[in-house]
Every structure is written in C-alpha cells, then in structure tokens.
Write a structure and sequence with these properties.
Number of strands: 16
Number of helices: 15
Helix content: 40-55%
Strand order of the largest sheet: 6-7-8-9-10
Amino acid sequence: MVTIKSYNDLIELGTNEQLRSKFIADAIEEHKSTARYRTALNAELYYKHLNPTIMNYEKFIYDHIGNKVPDVWSANSKIASNWYFYFVTQAVQFLLANGVSFGDANTKAKLGYDFDQRINELATAAKNGGVAFGFWNYDHLEVFPLADSDDHPGFVPLYDDDDGELKAGIRYWQAGSNKPLRATLYEIDGWTDYAQDNKKPMRAIDEKKSYTIVGRSSAFDGETVEPGENYPELPIIPLFNINRQSELVGNRGTLDAYDLMQSGLVNNICESEFVYWILKNSGGMSEVDDTEFIKRLKLTHVAHVDSDDGGNAEPHEVNVPYEASTVSLKSLEQQLFNDFMALKVTDIAAGSVTATQIQAAYEPITQKTDLFENQVTLFIIRLLRLVGIDDKPTYTRSKIVNVESDINMILTAAPYLTDEYVTEKILTLLGDADMIDTVLQQKAREQANRFTLTGGEDDENA
C-alpha cells in the first residue's frame, strides 16, 4: 500500500527547511506511484488518441524449440479509436460550450478574459484525472492537472486528515531526465520554490512569498492592489469529477477491446494471416525446416520445395470473419455509448424527429451532466467567495433542438415571462447567444425613444 503524504504531515515538520525539502521530494515520488496518478496519466493518453494498450501491443510466435520471440513478419497495425476523446469532449462541451453566465455582467470581467476557456480546460482535466485544481493567481484562473506530462506540470494535493479539505499542494515539473526537478509548495500563507539537481537533495531556492490580492471594490477609490496579504484560505480549489474518479475507470477494457478487434481485423485482411500450407511428399522436413520455410515465405513470398517424389506446397486460405468482427465492433460501440451515457447523434440526425424524441435521446447525458454540473458549480461558488464576489453561475447547455417547436413553445408562454428572458432563450436557440446583451440594449434604447416621443406629443397637445 502506498503511503500518501498529507497536510498534517507537513505541519508536523514545523519550520525545519531540511525536513520540508525532503518531504516535498518524497511526496512527489509517492504521488507518482499511486493508482490514481497512473490512471490520470493513461486517461490523458487516451484523450490524445494514443491508446497505451494498443500502442504497446506486440505479436509473438514460438520457434521450433518453444521460445517466445517477437513476430516481425506479420502485419501489426495499431489502430487507436478516438472514442474516449469524443465522449469526454461531448460531456464537457454539453455543459460549458456556451460559457458560464452570471447575474452581474461585471463578474466575468473580474474573473479574467479567458475564464470560460480555463473552466473548460479544468473540467477536461477533472474528467481525465478524477480531480483537477484551479489556482486563483491574482486576477486570473490557472489549471493544475493531477498528473504531469510533456504539456504541463503535475500537482500533489495535500489534504487535511481531520476535515478532508485541501490545505496545501505541490506543483512539480521537469523539462527532461537530465534537467533539474522543480517544485512549488503552495500553503495558505504563501508559496515557496524548490529545486533538485542531479539527484542531490531537494532544496528551497527562495524564501516564502505571500500571495498578491486584488483589493475589494470601494465606492471612494475603486479597486486597489494590496500586495503582501494572504487569502483567508488556500487559493487552490479542487474540481472533482463524478464519484471523484476518472472517466477511464470502468471503460478502459471496452475501449481496448474495440481497438484490438479493429486492429486485428485490419491485420488479418492486409496480411491474409489465415493461410496455412500443406507440404506434400516432404516428410523428411524437420520442425526447423518448417520454421525456415515459413520465414522465407513471409520474407520473399516464394516457396521452393525440393523432392524426388514430386513434393509441392499447396496454400489453403481461411476467409477472414469480417461480418462477425463488424457485428462485434458495433456491439462494443453501443456499449461505450451506454457506459459513457453519451448522446448518439446518429439516433436523432436521420429523418424528421420530434422535440420529444430529441429530449429522450438526451436523457442519459442530461442525467450525467446534472451530477457534473453540481461539482462545477461548487467549484465556482468557492472561487467567487475567495475573490470576494457575490454571484452565482448559470449554464446554457449545448443541445440539438427542434428550433421551430421550441421557439413556438417560448412564444406561447411569453405573456407569463419577462421580455429579457424570452429574448435570451430565443437568441440562444438561434445560436446567437453572444448577441444577447447587444439586442437587449438596442431594445431598451428603442423603448426609451418611444417613451420620449410619446411624452413630447402629450406635452405639445397640452
């Protein structure tokens, strides 16, 4: 069982910098040995269309004395499907494709111009790793994935043994095996940089620095920057996936089975692997001779049979079970859609479908997204509290809809709804959600102009 370092272990070390440096090095090593880390690392490979199972798959054969040797003669196409990327992307975009909305128009500006992009990136990292971490860095959000890769550093969470809350964390990275290991320890009262060169002990390379906070809004002098102060809690917030586990958990076996079957089907067709040879009047050939015969045949595609009794080599081909393989692939594909609770667009794209049929097709992904939305909302609310903003997020899910039917339904209910709500819903259905503010402002100006003109006429008649 792998021992996991916690926040309490760090606190017990006090201010002894030597012990703290060793703690950081050990925590990183332990983190990389956990099952959660390996799952997150593999999930990112699947997300990048690099199924590690199929990419590392090798064929073997047995020689005449029973030794297992690599099969360098047979075709070994390695076809990795893109299903995992498709399902994760669909789940994230279904919730966040239209961005996050807030009641106050100024909230988005305070969270940074790229807030929607960062939340999208954070949600994807959480889907892959089971959890990802958002760091509020002065005036914008940064994403800390759980596992390190060539694209980004990793992050070691240090939870409190008592309440389970994240109280500290270690971000680490290494540009190459011959490069120094760098790390940053984030604590509630600040952050410290560390480095480890050529397997020497980890050491602090700078003193602890305090976080810089953007001052709260003031009616007298606006916002001010107040350096040297710390947040009331760690400015790193975890975003958990459903069940706090990666999307790869429980689905890897089906993904691998699909890719292996698809690769095997292509290899069998390309290489005609299902061919066997009957050697007539060649009883004097030994097992070594048989092995050499097949090896030369695969290399040169020419067979020489020498025999005084009219020996020859006769090939026999077994048809590749294409139809059975295709049916199996279809079955695995449907299982993937069921297990990921994903939307199968082909089910609603063919022919004319009603709004009820579309809604039924969306039911699995809607239920799954409801659970994930709870986690995203919890993250954003904690972030708003940290920044000092009183607001709450809302989302407009990205859906294929029967636009005419939905617009008619909204217009029927319009007498009971506000004008702003009706305008926002219709523009969203038309794909013009980015124009909501512009249209509402234009309508407000037109209404004001009508009011002014009406008022002027009344005064003139008086």
